[in-house]
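ok trying again, last paste got cut off:
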Amino acid sequence: MTKLRLEKSDIQTWLRGEYVTYWGIIWAVISTVLYLNFSVVDAHAARPVWFILATTGLEEIGLLISGYLCWRNWQSPNIPSGRAVWLLFAIAIFAFFGGNLWFCLWEVQWGLDPAASAGNPFFVLFYLMLIAGMRLAILDRDVQLAPQQWVIVGAVAAIGLTIGCSLTTLPARAGVPPGLSSIEIAQTSPNPSLTTGMITPTISHQSIANSTVMSLETPPEWVLAIDQSMQPLVTTFNLFYVLCDLVLLTFAAILLLGFWGGQLGLPWRMTAQAVLCFYIADTWFASAHDQVQGYESGSIMEVFWIFGIVQFGIAAALEFDNSIRARRLARRRTAIK
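nice, full thing came through this time. structure:
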């Protein structure tokens, strides 16, 4: 029993804010090096499957750790920002974990357009829970801003809206219809041998090369059914994510200005930075998916997802440390009395 308590204490020691920050920086550096070295490929070549699996693994492991840290905060009765906030954050991060898993299966396992995967409902849940958590944090902490600070918040929202609209409303890509995978093209063609010379190379080489069709197996019927039902909604989902990021960016600016400076405000500054990273990655993916023919995941800008995931974990660990300090300070005051 004593040994079990010691082991649990050791684990909690390694999950302190200081160590989580160090590991988060290392995780971000490893991810950056990986993306810088292998995300850029020849225009007629596909990114290797191992690279997509490696980056997905970095994201998934980071999500599990960050989700657990948020869950730990919810279980602690001394969290100064309120337990419900971190419960919502934990649900959001675990939902992103599930969505990211489906995203990878859609692209690597079955060679389909990942933007139309079964992960979209999970991503929608992620944003709804995260927005609810950020809003609750602002209300619970009773954040009060000066008039000039509200001007800054309005400017941030205006800039975010301008960037999001300019990138997501550009003319759609030409060539293969958006989201149409090479498997669907092959299935809809009655006789590939009768197609013209201009069409056949586009299907057999460019689409296959650009959509990571190193899939392990043919998609089951239920997967194809979900894919076909999601295809018309891809643009709507991407726009929804960018708009949600805009709301989150506004909330993050409020929290950042409300908790500017001091140890207690550090977790919310990290949360604001995490939201900014998600905004960058989501906006890039939404615009690239619409503009780049046969876009496949793994672009250098997608490393910002990992940056955001890491910073959510650091924010949760720092907030837990703040609760421990507050509890120790309360004990000292009680002892002095």
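cool. The longest helix spans residues 303-336. Confidence is low (pLDDT under 50) at residues 173-213.
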